[in-house]
Amino acid sequence: MNGNPDGGECQVDAKRILRDSMRRMRRELPDRERRSAIIAEHLVALPALAAASRVMAYKAVLGEVDPVSVVGWLRARGVDVRMPEDDVSPDWPDAIIVPGTAFTLKGQRLGQGGGWYDRFLQGRRKDALTIGIGFEPQVVDIVPTDVHDIELDCIVSEVGPTWTHRRTTP
């Protein structure tokens, strides 16, 4: 869904302002580790993630939700987990855990600005589950989007999972 069909300079500015605000907020959260642990508990409780045999995850950068415990849990169960630097084909994973700077409950995502995930998600299998993870303050009402931005199936924060309109059942 395109939040601004005209795009342009205003769209770029809106994305930059929201990214800066969300990055600052994430850095200032005093309890990121505790929040990440709660998010991890919600993730491992998702039947669709537990059923996956190939999962794309990521290594957190400063301020992001750290999925390291989920990656360990998946690997202990025999799941093949890969990272973006592993040069995986977009049609490989059954589930993709996606970071972001902001999310909406409709599945819209604002990333870091490089477009890697949007390009990767374009080629995913249609049955591959896409899960955005972020801290509750990163879930906002509106995220500026462009036509190339990919909506996610599920957003998971400390509050728990929210399934988007794309996928209504776990």
Can you offer a commentary on this structure?
- The chain has helices at 8-28, 32-44, 47-50, 68-76, 116-122; strands at residues 54-56, 80-82, 95-98, 102-103, 109-110, 129-133, 154-157, 160-163.
- Helix 4 (68-76) links the parallel strand 1 (54-56) and strand 2.
- Residues 1-6 have low confidence and may be disordered.
- It is globular and about 45 Å long.
- The relative contact order is 0.20.
- The longest helix is centred in the N-terminal third of the chain and has 21 residues, at 8-28.
- It has a single domain (8-163), classed as Rossmann fold.
- The strands form two sheets. A six-stranded mixed beta sheet has the order 2-1-3-6-7-8, with helices on one face. It has a two-stranded antiparallel sheet with strand order 4-5.
- By secondary structure, the protein is α/β, with parallel strands linked by helices.
- Helix 2 (32-44) runs parallel beside helix 4 (68-76).
- It is 32% helix and 16% strand.
- The protein contains five helices and eight strands, in the order H-H-H-E-H-E-E-E-E-H-E-E-E.
